[in-house]
Amino acid sequence: MIKRVCPIILALLWSVPAFATHPLMTDDTGTQGRGGFQFEYNGEYSTDHEHAAGIVEKESGGTIAAALTYGLSDNIDICVGLPWQWSSLWVNGNLVSNDNGIGDTSVEVKWRFLECKTHAFSLALKPKLLIPSGDAQKGLGNGNISGGVQMIATKEWEKRALHCNVGYLHNSYSMAQDAAILKQDVWNASLAAEVHLTDKLRSFADIRIDSNVEKTPDPNRVFLLGGIIYRMKDTLDLDLGVKAGLNHAESDKTILAGLTARF
Q1: Please, are residues 121 and 154 in contact by the beta-carbon 8 Å criterion?
Q2: This prediction's pTM
Q3: Is the model's pLDDT at 2 over the cut of 50?
Q4: Ordered domains of the chain (ranges, CATH)
Q5: Is residue 126 within 8 Å of residue 149, measured between CB atoms?
């Protein structure tokens, strides 16, 4: 499908992120512990090309997001995040849209409600609230309060871990044109594996499927993500990842990088 309006582009490429262990999109059940703080500062840049009926489209855009997490208890975290987003669209070499600004603020609570230490298995719930702080007319937010929930499972071994997520999000749009072309109810499912290569270096692979936000017969978005997380010291991680779309509904390629500080 040829995407002609910027709000659709931003909805497809730059949905408000859930703050998993960046650059993973699949979250784990880990929490900060009572009184612990974590600050994340992450960036993403994506490109996408489409050819149809003699029309050549090129899309590019990015997100810079900051998030602060606080441990309310040993098994409950609260996280507040705010993204800055931008997106541009060229059609046959001509720039037809170019928007940027802050997106909607996210408030997430992670509750690890089950932990079986004998089998190194745990489950968590993460409800999420999206507060309209972005400009809905530019496609930088929904314009209304939205929300959803994520179910998280983690299984650990000595130097390996497997994480599984299933989530649901209800979007409430203030713009009639958004409500006409975008779905209110969307879902996602993902699976990630990580391996501790050394005491400081972890590698991972992450695969995810998201229901397409457009009310069209386009397929659901599917991507594969791989990368590394390097622990410079106990309180500071650096990460780098590459995400590749596995079908035309997903962006062709995305580069992700970030840092995480704990205190």
Answers
A1: yes
A2: 0.90
A3: no
A4: 6-262 (2.40.128.130)
A5: yes
